[in-house]
Design a protein that fits this description.
The structure is a homodimer of 133-residue chains.
Chain A: E1 2-4, E2 8-11, E3 25-31, E4 47-53, E5 63-64, E6 73-74, E7 87-98, E8 101-107, E9 114-120, H1 123-126
Antiparallel strand pairs in A: 2-3, 2-9, 3-8, 4-7, 4-9, 5-6, 7-8
């Protein structure tokens, strides 16, 4: 079994999944004091991947229909929060950094979502050269 | 504490980190039989995010220098495998799918890396409209 430690917490105005706009919202990513040293030079980055623990989905569900709105898809073929390891992945724009608090745009995690990792967006790794459409 | 279950395993010709090309290599992502139902309709997807458990880095290290080659950076400002929760994130192209085995191009995980999630690449979520450079 693999164990994770939350490194921070999301503070968002959105507290229920049904209220989250598709494009996410402005939110604060708070990094806990014990992990603050990991932020050195993060101000160089304009966009970040935020990895959150989006528990609350069903971990044993392997196929979903989006409430009957689509034909069944395996959870690995969609971005549903229902998945064996409910890790959410959201690309955000950095708006401002104040110590351990990163203000971001476009985050689709609910208020109080545990943050498990922050990674810089890197075009050399994260962009498909031949197809962005 | 958050617990993860491996859902699959990487089979790669590369067994040591120093031998991994920057752009990754062709590799096989094997999904374990208990999670195979999660692959339904994955053949619709051309590019996937593979999330791997890249343990072997130092989980208590919060700043790195890339073996002295750069000034210190916090681990959240770089893509180093040293991080509190060593989750690796790689964008790959799907080459072929054979049952539970997904042949991919561009994977930078070593042989026998546990796979913890597979997500479809979705331009609507994963592309920065104003800056890919």
């Amino acid at each position: 079994m693999i164990e994770l430690r939350p490194i921070g917490m999301v503070h968002s105005p959105v507290k229920k999944r049904g209220q989250m706009p598709k494009e996410g919202v402005g939110a604060l990513v708070e990094v806990f004091p014990g992990f603050a040293d990991g932020l050195l030079q993060i101000e160089k980055r304009t966009h970040l991947w935020i990895l959150g623990w989006i528990d609350g989905g069903e971990r044993d569900l392997l196929q979903v229909t989006n409430h009957g709105k689509m034909e069944p898809h395996g959870v690995f073929a969609v971005r549903s929060p229902a998945r064996p390891n409910p890790i959410g992945l959201t690309l955000v724009r950095v708006v401002a950094i104040d110590g351990r608090n990163i203000s971001v745009a476009g985050l689709d995690f609910l208020d109080e979502t545990p943050v498990i990792d922050i990674k810089p967006f890197m075009p050399s790794r994260d962009v498909i050269p031949d197809s962005n459409g």
